[in-house]
Amino acid sequence: MIAQPTTGASVLESLRPELEKAFRDIPAFGEVGFRVFFNEGLPVRVEYSAALSKRLPPKAARS
Predict the structure, then answer these.
(1) 3-class DSSP assignment, residue 18
(2) Rounded distance, CA 55 to CA 60, Å?
(3) How many angstroms from the chain centroid is the CA of residue 50?
(4) What is the pLDDT of residue 37?
(5) Burial of 19 (0-12, 13-18, 19+ CB in 10 A)
(6) Helix (H) / strand (E) containing 25
(7) pLDDT for 17-54, tens place per residue?
(8) What 3-state DSSP class applies to 9?
């Protein structure tokens, strides 16, 4: 039988290295997200993404 983490805290702790990679380069204005995929109650895949956003100047300043 596969040993499963017993709490959410233990699952997060096991994912810590991957989460630290995902949050290594936090954008000044944007987002970082992650999804965790489970199989038989164990995390088997981590998917993370980042997006950099830029604020556009007001329409009058763009002309």
Answers:
(1) helix
(2) 14
(3) 8
(4) 93
(5) middle
(6) none
(7) 888 887 887 778 888 888 999 988 888 998 988 888 88
(8) helix
User: What local confidence, expressed as pLDDT, does residue 59 receive?
Assistant: 81
In DSSP terms, 52 is beta-bridged to 30
Map tokens 């002309």 to a residue.
63
**pTM over 0.70, yes/no:** no
d(CA 61, CA 2): 61
- Residue spans of beta strands (DSSP E) within 7-53: 30-39, 42-52
Residue with tokens 């499963």: 4
Separation between Cα atoms, residue 19 and residue 46, nearest integer Å = 9
Amino acid 4: pLDDT: 60
Cα distance between residue 34 and residue 11, in whole Å: 14
